[in-house]
Amino acid sequence: MRHNLETHPVAGRVDDLNARYKHHSAHDVLKRALTDDQVGRIAMVSSFGAESVVLLHMVSVINPDIPVLFIDTQMLFQETLDYQLEVSKHLGLTNVQVIRASDAALAADDPDGTLNQRDTDACCHLRKTVPLENALGGYDAWITGRKRFQGATRAALDFFENEGDIRIKVNPLAHWDPQDIQDYIVNNRLPRHPLVAQGYPSIGCAPCTSKVAPGEDPRAGRWRDTQKEECGIHFINGKVVRGPLPKEDPVEEALPMNTIVTDEGFASDDWSGEFVALEGLSEDNAVALDLPSDADPTVLQGKLDGIDMIRVDFPSFADGRGFTLARCLRLMGFHGRLRARGHVIADQYAMARRSGFDEVEITPEMAERQPWDQWKARSNWQSHDYQSRLRGSA
Ligand code: SF4
């Protein structure tokens, strides 16, 4: 019998669904979400980006008639528009709905299509958030491809989320990691977005997406050189978030960062010396140095021999500059201890080690959220790459 959703608050249904499907697979969660009366009318939202084909394939196997909402910002790559048609046909999806900002809204707020150059938050709001909110008005739930590994703000992501006491958000891939995604695409012989092979591991609008260099964070090419990380169509703790997600969790920030991750496991910090900032560096105190991720390494030319330890700050998991900085320091001949400190997640450990870091420093809270077994999988970092896995050598 169909639940009367009006008399069953979203929060209670979400708790119930998470309790019931806690130990189920992504496929099971998706299947039940598409049929469970407690979820109600449901649509999938897809960008037809680099990894979207995984969830689209799962949906097509269960029910190819489910509405799939595709937000066309009218700023997308032509390759994405072509890929959307190709994938929809390949998977037999029968109900893909293209969502766009209205002509009136575009004429009023972005008549010449240059808003993205002045105010990306406003542009995303106009071209993504508002059209999506309007489209979701007729649904009780929507399916997203968000995953825990995508950052600290998603580290505790559940399968079912309460979206502002209005709708349920379903995240079937919450527990998947990048390798699971790659394996699924390969094993099911799914078509790849053509731009992935051209250096775009994360694909958004053309004006706001650039190529990513080997070793950089996969999302480093999104809104490059800005503080923006998200388009603002997401919701945190049940509240609509307009504009970018908060850069830092203030509670997390206040905690001491004293859990050290190495190839051997978690340890407490054995470094008791003082750290100096770049501005305070002198020949007398050059023992341990704190560097921001955007530091210019060339200012350390000729000074590295006197430094025993360098700690590079990672203000956000999506800020890949720290990896580049580490590589530069090693190329310049720095042989001391190199530590990545802050918002580094387990999935980035192999990249951190390959970039030249010896260790990672995180808060006890982050260590609790991502226990050692999640880091351990990457501690064999020399062989932790996709090609070696395919060869069976990892
Ligand atoms: S990603 Fe860029 S072009 Fe696309 S909607 Fe946002 S600001 Fe505008």
Structure description:
Strand 7 (235-236) and strand 8 form a beta hairpin. The radius of gyration is 23 Å and the shape is globular. Helix content is 32%, strand content 15%. It is α/β, with parallel strands linked by helices. The model is unreliable at 232-256 and 384-394 (pLDDT under 50). It has 2 domains: 5-240, Rossmann fold; 250-391, Alpha-Beta Barrel (TIM Barrel). The chain has helices at residues 10-21, 26-35, 52-62, 78-91, 103-109, 115-118, 120-136, 178-187, 250-254, 321-331, 349-355, 364-369, 372-379, 386-391, and strands at residues 42-46, 68-71, 96-99, 141-143, 160-163, 167-170, 235-236, 239-240, 259-262, 265-268, 276-277, 288-291, 309-314, 337-342, 359-362. It starts with 9 loop residues before the first helix and ends with a helix. A 7-stranded mixed sheet has the order 10-9-15-14-13-12-11. A 6-stranded mixed sheet has the order 3-2-1-4-6-5. Strands 7-8 form a two-stranded antiparallel sheet. Bound molecules: iron/sulfur cluster. Iron/sulfur cluster binds at residues 73, 75, 116, 120, 123-124, 127-128, 204-205, 207-208, 231. Catalyzes the formation of sulfite from adenosine 5'-phosphosulfate (APS) using thioredoxin as an electron donor. InterPro entries: PAPS/APS_Rdtase, PAPS_reduct_dom, Rossmann-like_a/b/a_fold, UCP030820. It comes from Actibacterium mucosum KCTC 23349.
